[in-house]
UniProtKB/TrEMBL annotation:
The lineage of its organism: Eukaryota, Metazoa, Chordata, Craniata, Vertebrata. It is a peripheral membrane protein. GO terms for cellular component: mitochondrial inner membrane. Keywords: Flavoprotein, Oxidoreductase. GO terms for biological process: mitochondrial electron transport, succinate to ubiquinone; tricarboxylic acid cycle. This is Malate dehydrogenase [quinone] flavoprotein subunit. Residues 69-263 form the FAD-dependent oxidoreductase 2 FAD-binding domain. It comes from Hypotaenidia okinawae.
Length: 263
């Protein structure tokens, strides 16, 4: 082809693209955007009735209201367990997360979960309690540490029942490895083997196990919503304000209970 013929061919192609491709290109993203918005908030949210039509800024950046019994901020290990635990108890629950749940940072944890199961030698949650308080230089909340160490064995067994593939001993029990700061008999009995693990990918396994379990419950997940602030009223938290990263809309989540599980 000559240079003139090539130029004519390019011009004709551009003309054809304007007539046929551009309308379709516009329509397809619009359809996707509508679908995504339906999934995110149209079903549950409503624009704030107090928005003034005359206020151009308010109409361009509407506030979308949501009402829930409870709202959880964060969808890592703690956030997922809190969210589907509330749903399981019958509460209408929302989970607001800036990432898809399986991208939360829990996925990067390697080590394991300490629990006094006693699979490797005799162990006691009170020794675990002592080690944890000592490891905090006696600055930790001892009521919280008491609850955590006493309930840790049941929590690990719960994860096992959810399907978390813990490393095993030859007898088929959950394998427990030695970690720093662990001791028996209040520091007088030598090294404890208390850490339950899934090889070196405990966090990855934990997060995917909890995410799979969460799909069983009717929890409303708001993915890629960035929490901006807490809604406070007379010194009490009444929910959160979040930004939808997809389209920039502001969302107000009103709730009777708010759980902060942001790591």
């Amino acid at each position: 082809l000559s240079l003139c013929e090539m130029a004519a061919t390019v011009a004709a192609s551009r003309s054809l693209a304007k007539r046929w491709l551009r309308p379709a290109a516009r329509a397809w993203p619009a359809a996707c955007q509508t679908l995504a918005r339906n999934l995110h908030f149209t079903v549950y949210g409503k624009k704030n009735a107090s928005t003034k039509v005359s206020d151009s800024i308010s109409t361009q950046y509407p506030v979308v209201d949501h009402e829930f019994d409870a709202v959880v901020v964060g969808a890592g290990g703690a956030g997922l367990r809190a969210a589907f635990g509330l749903s399981e108890a019958g509460f209408n629950t929302a989970c607001v997360t800036k990432l898809f749940p399986t991208r939360s940072h829990t996925v990067a944890a390697q080590g394991g979960i300490n629990a006094a199961l006693g699979n490797m030698e005799d162990d006691n949650w009170r020794w675990h309690f002592y080690d944890t308080v000592k490891g905090s230089d006696w600055l930790g909340d001892q009521d919280a540490i008491h609850y955590m160490t006493e309930q840790a064995p049941a929590a690990v067994i719960e994860l096992e029942n959810y399907g978390m593939p813990f490393s095993r001993t030859e007898e088929g029990k959950i394998y427990q490895r030695a970690f720093g700061g662990q001791s028996l008999q209040f520091g007088k009995g030598g090294q404890a083997h208390r850490c339950c693990c899934v090889a070196d990918r405990t966090g990855h396994s934990l997060l995917h196990t909890l995410y799979g379990r969460s799909l069983r419950y009717d929890t409303s997940y708001f993915v890629e919503y960035f929490a901006l602030d807490l809604l406070m009223e007379n010194g009490e938290c009444r929910g959160v304000i979040a930004l939808c990263i997809e389209d920039g809309t502001i969302h107000r989540f009103r709730a009777k209970n708010t759980v902060i599980a942001t790591g």
